[in-house]
Amino acid sequence: xxxxxxxxxxxDFSKIGEEVKSIDECGADxxxxxxxxxxxxxNLTFGAPVxxxxxxxxxxxxxxxxxxxxxxxxxxDFVKAGADIINFHVECDSPIDATLDKIRxxxxxxxxxxxxxxxxxxxxDYLEKLDLILIMTVEPGFGGQKFMDMSDKIKALRxxxxxxxxxxxxxxxxGISPATAPVVVNAGxxxxxxxxxxxxxxxxxxxxxxxRS
Length: 213
Known about the structure:
The chain is an alpha/beta fold. It contains eight helices and eight strands, in the order E-H-E-H-E-H-E-H-E-E-H-E-H-E-H-H.
């Protein structure tokens, strides 16, 4: 089943609580929350206190994408704020195994993300510890970028998981629209992060349904 995870990075920040409720009511499966520290990527967004406020608006799965240099230091804060999945980058400064173990020990699902220029093989050593792998189809840091086709990486990842008898979620983030969604789904992805394709749509319910189908 294809899951749709709209990214609140593309919402209207002046009424962010209403925006979260809107995509919940329009059929989103997960809420994707892009956390940026201004160091790992050149932008600043939400901290754990903001995520805690989001949690008052919905009981949907919170998929927290930590684009930060030291995720290990902040794992507990985001779990307490209401995260269901904590997804951080293989390129970060924190020790990967220790960070994954910390996430799991706090009862949260684990995710590991790779930038477009990082070989997907970088996550292979950790597959048995992962609930989700995120393949970035844009450079992390800003919404609204042009989609980069990462089909080969998705296919290689899905094949490796199948070889090991694993079935994690494979998520894609960046430039996802009704035109690009079939490309990544056919390659083996099953979770689609979409920002402007959902929040910028006149009919958000239809936009989510179109992406899913």
